[in-house]
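CO-FOLDING WORKSHEET

Operator: S.A.
Ligand of interest: fe (ii) ion
Run index: 295
Mode: holo prediction, single chain
Checklist:
[x] sequence pasted
[x] SMILES validated
[ ] output reviewed
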Amino acid sequence: MTTQDQVQIERLIRISKQKPLFPETFIPWDLEEAEEHLLLPDSLVSLSGHPVYQTLSKAQKRELARREVVQAMYAYAWSEGLFCFFMNRYILHRLPDDLERRFLLREVQEESRHQEMFAATIEKLGRRPVPVNRFHRIVASLTVKFFPADLAFMSCLAVEMMADRYGDQLQHTPGTYPVLQKVAQLHNIEEARHILFTKALLKTYTERAGFWRSTLYSLVVLLNMRFFQSTYVRTDIYRAVGIDHPNRVRRQAFADYQARFASECLGTIRELVHSFNGFNALTRPLWRRILKVEP
Ligand SMILES: [Fe+2]
Ligand SMILES: [Fe+2]
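OUTPUT RECEIVED:
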């Protein structure tokens, strides 16, 4: 890490201490949801664009948006819990004055507050999320327990950057329920610092990454994106909304959702992968095929 990076991280630690954002006071929790409030922009609703969406009643569309925003909040809370686990593992034996340890301790505190904030938002929206499946649980546990630090940080950076774009849309779409807008705003402010830190930390690895290492990083980012998309788009949600043949609809809707997600939420991810030359003859076809992203 360069001296310039170190100065920047000291600055990030200072901001975190001097300007902490507490969900308890930052979010207008008492503001009740009204009929005219939007719960999720159409561009982020998995089915918008699918012919079935046009056949849904207004109430069903709202129910779908409600359940999908709950699902996204749950997916972030879950992934942040995993990341806290990894951060504690990473800093466990470092000395108290170690720069990375000091920053990551701030990050653990912020991520813990975010998890509480997401849980409170879910409660406010009044629906239970669909739990991640066994495959998700096993892969995630193996990652945080055994992955080398650079790969685990790369996974987390990818998810943070994706969450950042998603939150950005939630925050800036006019008419969105103000509780959701403020949740997204708080999260975006703090995640921006985490992203800066993680990018600086990963520079040490990505700068000297050759072809195979860049390929590996590219695959880690790709699989994380794909992994997270499958935690959002769930058959159980379609069933709960009262959609016929939910399995079939999910299969059809997923590819379309991926294409929309790629254009709405993956711009910065594409830049990240470009920055470490992660698009090459091996990975390009996979990005096109698995994520519907044009590298
Ligand atoms: Fe967070
Ligand atoms: Fe974060």
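REVIEW:
The mean pLDDT is 92.
DSSP finds 13 helices and no strands in the chain.
[x] output reviewed
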